[in-house]
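task queued by scheduler; priority normal; single chain, no ligands, no partner chains; default sampling; output format set to structure tokens
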Amino acid sequence: MDATLILFDDAIARDWFPFCLTRPAGELRFGTMTLRQRAERRFGLRCAGHIAAPHLRAFDEPWAPPVLNGPPSPDRPTLFLSSRAVPDGDGLALGPEPHLLAMEGAVCGWYAPAGTPLPDEAFLLDPAASTPLLPVREIPGSLLTHPWQLVTENVERIVSDVSWLHPDADRPKLPHGVHVLGDGLIVVGANVALEPGTVLDTSGGPIWLDDHAVVRAFSRLAGPLYVGPGSTLLGGSYEASSIGPVCRVRGEVGESTFLGYANKAHDGFLGHALVGMWVNLGAFTTNSDLKNNYGRVRMWTPNGAVDTGAVKLGALVGDHVKTAIGTLLNTGTVVGPGANIFGGSPPKYVSPFAWGGSDPASSHDIDRFLDTAALAMRRRDVALTDGGRAQLRAARDEAVRRGWMGTS
């Protein structure tokens, strides 16, 4: 079908702190792919762009579609889908007539054939409350409500993704000295390097090593596990996690997600955490993911602290965060993007662009921050473009406008 896919951040997605300051929600990883990639595969459509908050208009990543100024011209069929939507089912046909899409009874999309009216801003911000008189078509899937669901529901998503994308995969021939436990599925992409002394444990679920992944000796991988293209596991224990592209990870990692292009190159524990792009976790950086009283974890949000309902939940770490050697993060910590943390154990809420992390009033000089970001990205052969710089400046301005700077 010659149709276009547009993902939109509604009012809920625009509050998915800390990631809402630096990227549209569709560019967050869930299972083995981003929410945008999932929608593209399920509908068989290319995403032409995101509709998101104004401070994201200059968003610029070479592998992602841009943030649009508004709905495109109505001269071709267009599917507007909530970026919080997690569609299931293959080849979801759209048909010739305009209609709304719903998941689990909640409106989450608008299909506009060429020449028909497009959704207005009120619909894009709150589809459930601004519903036009169009037929509603229920499709399989679910809507995420909170960003920590990308952690708490990720393990099941890895399992379903691998069975969906590799239903008939045969177990590959592995190099001598690589040990396999269990009878689960193993998927190995092109040019994957597995050193002798590696253990692959599929007793709890499948393992997918994507193209050009590298696994160094003395690594123990336990499924369900996804390792993205070009990522390197440097040794340690990795279990029930999603590691995006071009990451370098060492130590103990459990039920955590790396969006991509992040470094945890030294020992330390990371559990039930979501780590943004261009993060560098210093040696022995560790997070707690379980309270001493085994109680449910509360987490800071823009609308106040929320009981997540989870007993295990570590940290949400925004894009471009840096931590010093020996940093200790408490259970349920939220770290704003651009923060540079040093000095031990920061509070459970670290402001965006914080300098040090313990004093809410101390912030990173934006020009020095941008210089560091450009240097870190250049080390991975990615340029911080003028658009990227403008977006990060806009992120800081938005954090100030919304009162997220200097907050404890």
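post-processing summary
- The longest strand covers residues 232-239.
- Residues 51 and 70 are 6 Å apart (CA to CA).
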